Structures are given as C-alpha cells and as structure tokens.
C-alpha cells in the first residue's frame, strides 16, 4: 500500500474517529487529543497495518487502547465517579423533552465502559456485531447483550430514572460539570 | 389549573420528560443522536495539528520515490528522522 493511499484512508477515517472519541470520552477536547495521538501511532506503526483490511477498524482499535491506557492514569488523578455523571443527568430532559447532543454525550458517560463502547461501535460507527466482537476481543453474543443493556439503560436514564435527584442544587452542579467537561 | 388524572395513569410534573414521549422511537432516538454526532464531526474542519502530523507521510513517500536505498523497516521510526 502506498503512503498516499494510506494517508487518504486515514483522512477519510478522521470524522469517524472524532465521532467515536467524542462519544467514548464525552469531551470534545479530549477526543481530539485522542485522535491526534491515534494518528501519531498509526503513522509510527503503519508497517503493522495489513493492506486490504479495515483501516477504520484498525485505527479505532488504536484509539480505544489509547483511551483506556490514559483512563487508567487519569482515574488515579481525577476521581470522576459515576455519581458525578449521574448528577449531570439531572438537568437532562428539562428542555421540552428535547435532547441536546451534549446531554446525550453526558448520558453515554453513565453507561459502564464495556456497554458504552459496544453501543458506539454498533450504533454509531456502523460496524457489524462480528467486527465489533473482533475489535473488543469478545464473542458476538457478548457484544449483542452489551448493546442491548446499553440501550435499555439509556432509555431508562432518559425517562427520568428515580435514581437521580432533581433538586436545583444538583442541576446547577451538573450544568457546571457539563460545561467544564465539554469545554464550553 | 385543575387537571383530571385518571387513576393508574402516571402523572409527571411539568418540564420532566414523559417516558412515553421520549421512548416513542426507542431504537431510533439513540441512532439519531449518534448520527448528529457523526454529522457534526464530518462538518468540523480537520484541525491543522492533525494535518501537520499526516504530512509526515508525504515526506516518507517523497523520500521513497527519490531514493531507493536501504529501507527503514523499523516498526517505530524515530521522531527526529521523520523530517
């Protein structure tokens, strides 16, 4: 594979990579950092890419590894508990039931990581269950059940799960958190 | 204002999303949200940082075209040697 077509393939994959990273991390700035690092790794390791195989899948696998490697470091630095994400959700369906994209990104962060990434690969990145299973190094049935649990959990969250407080203090706190997370 | 609420019908406070409304197109709303995220990413210009990084590949192909001497087949080439 020539360097030109490798580059073209990468450029074509960038919107998918950014969308994937935004959905996975819930944060646009961090997402672009992840994409940047992914591009650097893809270039450095281009000999390992097998021409003819799915370049987008190869790059998303790199991005995902990068995300989890960083995530493990970050968790020790900034404890961002599920409780914080849940708090962001209290502000969610307030605006005429209209769901804003930032709210959705925030809701995704309430899902367990394995469910979130399965849902994104299937629902957003357009991979088949078989492809996703290969990328996640698991079985097709596992991917299916993760996606299905993710969908029910999102439905549940969006319909105002009683788990979440709706007092004004937590709504205010969640707005701040959301704005900080999204770098608005 | 007095509102009649049938027994057994869930009643939701104003401003709180009603499940029947949100869950109308269960499968679809999630897909729609993802489509919006993708469309937005598609419309966003690719940051210069990313294109700069990719221009490394132009240099690699240019040097491969001009000189056919020994091939650097290291898996991870030095960053310094890329320019």
UniProtKB/TrEMBL annotation, chain A:
Similarity-based family: Belongs to the sigma-70 factor family. ECF subfamily.
Any one GO biological process: DNA-templated transcription initiation
Top-level taxonomic group: Bacteria
CDD domains attached to this UniProt entry: Sigma70_r4
The keyword Transcription regulation is assigned to this record: yes
Species for this entry: Roseibium limicola
Protein's name according to its UniProt entry: Sigma-70 family RNA polymerase sigma factor
InterPro entries, per database record: RNA_pol_sigma-70-like, RNA_pol_sigma-70_dom, RNA_pol_sigma70_r2, RNA_pol_sigma70_r4_t2, RNA_pol_sigma_r2, RNA_pol_sigma_r3/r4-like, WH-like_DNA-bd_sf
Signal peptide location: none
Keywords, sorted A to Z: Sigma factor, Transcription, Transcription regulation
Residues covered by the RNA polymerase sigma-70 region domain: 15-76
Keyword Transcription in annotation: yes
GO molecular function (one): DNA binding
Domain RNA polymerase sigma factor 70 region 4 type: 103-154
Automatic annotation (TrEMBL), chain B:
Organism listed in the record: Roseibium limicola
Compositionally skewed regions (Acidic residues) per UniProt: 66-83
InterPro entries reported in the protein's UniProt record: NepR
Region (Disordered): 59-83
Pfam families, sorted: NepR
Ranges for domain Anti-sigma factor NepR: 28-59
Designated name of the protein: Anti-sigma factor NepR domain-containing protein
């Amino acid at each position: 594979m020539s360097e030109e077509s490798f580059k073209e393939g990468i450029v074509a994959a960038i919107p998918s990579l950014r969308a994937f990273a935004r959905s996975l991390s819930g944060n646009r700035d961090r997402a672009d950092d992840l994409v940047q690092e992914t591009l650097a790794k893809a270039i450095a390791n281009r000999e390992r890419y097998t021409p003819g195989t799915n370049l987008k899948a190869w790059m998303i696998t790199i991005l995902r590894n990068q995300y989890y490697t960083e995530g493990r470091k970050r968790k020790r630095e900034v404890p961002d508990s599920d409780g914080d994400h849940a708090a962001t959700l209290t502000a969610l369906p307030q605006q005429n039931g209209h769901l804003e994209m930032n709210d959705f990104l925030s809701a995704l962060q309430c899902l367990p990581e394995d469910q979130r990434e399965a849902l994104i690969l299937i629902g957003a990145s357009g991979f088949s269950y078989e492809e996703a299973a290969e990328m996640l190094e698991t079985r097709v049935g596992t991917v299916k059940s993760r996606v299905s649990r993710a969908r029910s959990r999102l439905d549940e969250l969006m319909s105002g799960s009683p788990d979440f407080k709706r007092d004004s203090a937590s709504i205010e706190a969640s707005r701040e958190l959301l704005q900080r997370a999204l770098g608005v | 204002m007095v509102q009649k609420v049938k027994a057994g019908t869930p009643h939701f406070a104003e401003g709180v999303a009603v499940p029947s409304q949100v869950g109308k197109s269960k499968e679809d709303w999630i897909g729609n949200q993802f489509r919006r995220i993708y469309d937005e990413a598609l419309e966003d210009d690719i940051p210069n940082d990313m294109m700069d990084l990719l221009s490394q590949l132009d240099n690699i192909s240019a040097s491969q075209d001009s000189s056919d001497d020994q091939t650097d087949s290291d898996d991870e080439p030095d960053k310094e040697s890329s320019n």
